[in-house]
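Workshop exercise sheet. Pairs work together: one partner reads the sequence aloud, the other fills in the structure field after running the prediction. Swap roles for the next sheet.
Pair: D.N. / O.F.
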Amino acid sequence: MGGWRSKFIFLLVVYFAGFATAIYWLAPVEEGQASRLRGKSFASSSLRSGELKQSLKAGFNSDEFKKYMGLAKKRASDVSRYVKRKLEDKYQTSGSGRRDVYDTD
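Structure field:
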């Protein structure tokens, strides 16, 4: 972000978003709606019944998740090698002998 005006506008947006969230959570609920929602919280419905646990196990053991995790690991490795190479080039051109600091292989 550039100047103080853009920072100020960003802070206003964040402040009013937080204020709107507080109003939403503190707003009164109609009587009929309150009785219908009682006992239907996230903790009581998902965590106690074990549905969340089963869902997470199924998600983490899926082939699609494993495929994307493999891709993420490969990309992280590529980025790591790229950054090391750029730092090596930077220190070779500047004449600093700090190559050993970034060499983890």
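Discussion prompt: The longest helix spans residues 63-94. What would you look at next?
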